[in-house]
């Protein structure tokens, strides 16, 4: 039998893509059909996503999917980054332009929210790590605006795209779990939290689980793309990190994962949330995965630091080639200066090389004096953060780790993989780089009855995708010393 074909739209912070997934027993092949830039736009009220350009990118990608398969697409799935949303008015029209989570309008808003719902209580309910851009803070910052007054429905970004593709309205649960309006234990919305913030509790649409049907393509979408009007849209794990964790090729339950792209999301898969004060203070989140699993992890600033350096260097006419920069970093002297990648000043877009130099100056460390030294500092600091977070997760969850799976675009970065293995003192399995798109395809394939439970999906990934192995090496004492130079994890919270 010929393999079943699925289209996965995966929107990331720097680019979006539509990939074709072919699935059959012992076969899982991805082909990228269309990649388009994701370029945020600054307006007078702040930083926004250009959602129409992204949607057009998805439509063009689906059109290519139709052409390259003679329209034989079994279903379509959409995932993206978490937290951000669009608001619809009572006619279903989008109100304004969705904000980018790196916009500064949420600065200081947490204090207002915590004066109504204290931080401990919010964590006991939602299990969500405190990030300044959590949906709850974004909504609170907009309270009383004309748009909030007119808003009837909140749709997270992938749900907004599904609404535009199908006309249906729903909230996918893995992504809903990143809003801080969702109960980590029961897996249901907590509209009472909106009520306590004087926001409309009925903004939250009905939940959908990965695998649920999300409708079929609207006639004008079918006409433009060349896919049939009956083409199903399947709910996937629409939070990109949840999709990536589906495609972690782990066999042994004692695994940890690092989903490494713009962010590094490092943690464990658990059966139930950890809602203790210690966990809250350490900055761990309990996001929902497929099949009721919990993604117990911490956000680490990730490749963003490097992406922003390269953006700054491009504007200054300096070299930005990644292989060259990483080769220079590999040759640079180790352990000269290390930073906490999660320092709040690194969150907003800006002159990242200068931010990092300022951090080193402030902490009395040598200031990186070349691009290679700076990239070394970033990669070593990320490896160190991976180690700190995984060790802390293992301790808080009382969960042994014997192997680290590094997936996502960052898994192509050999220096990062090697240093992560060295820093953690654990073997690292790198790949697949396209874990998110694979997870998206796999959940669609499962809905179509082609694969089974999580472990069989993971076995299919392990059997079909190219993986690289990095045994731990290097000098453990040097990593201990580097770690001792940073403030204890979570101290800044
Ligand atoms: C990764 C990610 C993270 C989320 C951040 C912001 O792409 O989805 O999981 O914390 O983006 O939404």
UniProtKB/TrEMBL annotation:
<protein>
    <submittedName>
        <fullName>Rhamnulokinase family protein</fullName>
        <ecNumber>2.7.1.-</ecNumber>
    </submittedName>
</protein>
<comment type="similarity">
    <text>Belongs to the FGGY kinase family.</text>
</comment>
<keyword id="KW-0067">ATP-binding</keyword>
<keyword id="KW-0418">Kinase</keyword>
<dbReference type="InterPro" id="IPR018485">
    <property type="entry name" value="FGGY_C"/>
</dbReference>
<dbReference type="InterPro" id="IPR013449">
    <property type="entry name" value="Rhamnulokinase"/>
</dbReference>
<dbReference type="InterPro" id="IPR018484">
    <property type="entry name" value="FGGY_N"/>
</dbReference>
<keyword id="KW-0547">Nucleotide-binding</keyword>
<keyword id="KW-1015">Disulfide bond</keyword>
<keyword id="KW-0808">Transferase</keyword>
<feature type="domain" description="Carbohydrate kinase FGGY C-terminal">
    <location>
        <begin position="256"/>
        <end position="448"/>
    </location>
</feature>
<keyword id="KW-0684">Rhamnose metabolism</keyword>
<dbReference type="GO" id="GO:0016740">
    <property type="term" value="F:transferase activity"/>
</dbReference>
<dbReference type="Pfam" id="PF00370">
    <property type="entry name" value="FGGY_N"/>
</dbReference>
<dbReference type="InterPro" id="IPR043129">
    <property type="entry name" value="ATPase_NBD"/>
</dbReference>
<dbReference type="Pfam" id="PF02782">
    <property type="entry name" value="FGGY_C"/>
</dbReference>
<feature type="domain" description="Carbohydrate kinase FGGY N-terminal">
    <location>
        <begin position="8"/>
        <end position="246"/>
    </location>
</feature>
């Amino acid at each position: 039998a010929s393999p079943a074909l699925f289209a996965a739209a995966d929107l990331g912070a720097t680019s979006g893509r539509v990939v074709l997934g072919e699935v059959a027993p012992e076969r899982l092949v991805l082909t990228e059909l269309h990649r388009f830039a994701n370029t945020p736009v600054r307006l007078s009220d702040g930083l926004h996503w250009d959602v129409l350009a992204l949607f057009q990118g998805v439509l063009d990608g689906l059109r290519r999917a139709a052409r390259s398969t003679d329209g034989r697409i079994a279903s379509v799935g959409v995932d993206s980054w978490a937290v951000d949303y669009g608001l619809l008015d009572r006619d279903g029209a989008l109100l304004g332009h969705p904000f980018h989570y790196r916009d500064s309008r949420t600065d200081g808003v947490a204090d207002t929210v915590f004066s109504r719902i204290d931080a401990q209580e919010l964590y006991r309910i939602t299990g969500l790590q405190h990030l300044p851009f959590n949906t709850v803070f974004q909504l609170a910052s907009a309270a009383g605006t004309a748009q909030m007054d007119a808003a009837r429905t909140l749709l997270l970004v992938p749900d907004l795209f599904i609404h535009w593709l199908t006309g249906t309205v729903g909230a996918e649960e893995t992504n809903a779990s990143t809003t801080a309006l969702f109960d980590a234990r029961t897996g249901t919305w907590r509209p009472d939290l909106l009520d306590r913030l004087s926001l409309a509790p009925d903004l939250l649409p009905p939940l959908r689980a990965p695998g649920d049907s999300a409708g079929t393509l609207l006639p004008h979408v079918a006409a433009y793309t060349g896919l049939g009007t009956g083409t199903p849209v399947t709910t996937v794990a629409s939070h990109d990190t949840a999709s990536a964790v589906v495609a972690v090729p782990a066999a042994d339950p004692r695994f940890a994962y690092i989903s490494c792209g713009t962010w590094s999301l490092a943690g464990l898969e658990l059966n139930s949330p950890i809602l203790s004060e210690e966990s809250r203070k350490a900055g761990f989140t309990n996001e929902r995965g497929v099949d009721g699993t919990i993604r117990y992890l911490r956000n680490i600033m990730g490749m963003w630091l490097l992406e922003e350096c390269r953006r700054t260097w491009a504007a200054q006419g300096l070299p930005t080639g990644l292989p060259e920069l990483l080769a220079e970093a590999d040759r640079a002297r180790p352990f000269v200066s290390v930073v906490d990648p999660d320092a709040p000043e690194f969150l907003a877009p800006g002159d990242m090389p200068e931010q990092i130099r300022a951090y080193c100056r402030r902490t009395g460390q040598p200031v990186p004096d070349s691009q290679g030294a700076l990239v070394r500092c970033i990669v070593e600091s990320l490896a160190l953060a991976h180690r700190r977070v995984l060790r802390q997760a293992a301790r808080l969850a009382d969960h042994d780790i014997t192997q680290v799976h590094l997936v996502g675009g960052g898994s192509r970065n050999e220096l990062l993989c090697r240093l992560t293995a060295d820093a953690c003192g654990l073997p690292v399995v790198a790949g697949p780089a396209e874990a998110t798109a694979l997870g998206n395809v796999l959940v669609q394939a499962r809905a179509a009855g082609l694969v089974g439970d999580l472990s069989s999906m993971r076995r299919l990934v392990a059997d079909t995708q190219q993986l690289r192995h990095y045994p731990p090496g290097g000098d453990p004492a040097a990593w201990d010393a580097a770690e001792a130079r940073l403030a204890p994890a979570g101290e800044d919270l």
